[in-house]
Amino acid sequence: MIELRTPREIEEMRPAGRFVAETLQAVREAAEPGVNLLELDALAHRLIKERGAESCYIDYHPSFGASPFGKVICTSVNDAVLHGLPHDYDLVDGDLLTLDFAVAVDGWVSDSAMSFVVGESPSEERAAADEKLIRTTEVALEAGIAAAQPGKKVGDISAAIAAVAREAGYTINTDFGGHGVGRTMHGDPHVPNDGRAGRGFPLRPGLVIAIEPWFLETTDEIYTDDDGWTLRSVDGSRGAHSEHTIAITADGPIVLTARD
Known about the structure:
Elements: H1 7-30, H2 37-51, E1 54-55, E2 74-77, E3 80-82, E4 96-105, E5 108-117, H3 124-147, H4 154-167, E6 178-180, E7 187-191, E8 208-211, E9 214-216, E10 222-224, E11 231-233, E12 239-241, E13 244-249, E14 252-255
Antiparallel strand pairs: 1-4, 2-4, 3-11, 4-5, 6-7, 6-8, 8-13, 9-12, 10-11, 13-14
Helix pairs in contact: 1-2, 3-4
Cofactor: Co(2+); Zn(2+); Mn(2+); Fe(2+)
Keywords: Aminopeptidase, Hydrolase, Metal-binding, Protease
EC number: 3.4.11.18
């Protein structure tokens, strides 16, 4: 069931969005060469506890996961692009790291993701390729948000994202995408990263969704790592992922997880 939120409920969702944004920024600042992924998870866990928030990940066990996730933040490195399970790995210069984080604050959920390069890239060529990939997900996210206007359709968001990806030369996997957000992390409607404008669920004031373009450098095919969670490119190429939770209002979209 798709629920529409009142203006008051959307205001009540703002603290969750702010906390998600602040936590992602704090974890990003801590993600330096030599830092272990488990340390980043521990930092996010501590911030959740201090805030009195509730992790959406730690007990999360959907059909595609081998077991409950058991951690509070996704840390996808290099050829990993989604659902990266934190493990005993020390970051090195040039790693492309994606952080994906979702929590509930006062019963309302927000979900957001960012990708960035850790430390210094090993070469100008590698730095340029990573910058292009990351920036394309960011521009696609901006385009998707701009398309999320009342009276439009989910397909308008999807088409806007796909147009950015194709212009940059990337192909698109639609196995995972955006989703409704509210009292739980994942709900309807599904918001794929490719689609036809003017099709799909109508965008109405009160609809709260996560929009999350993610692309791989030279493929659109993925496989599940032996850890049962982390999704990696089949050819070893790098991935990037950008995500915001937004609320659609009569005046247009509000980004609840906006970062300073």
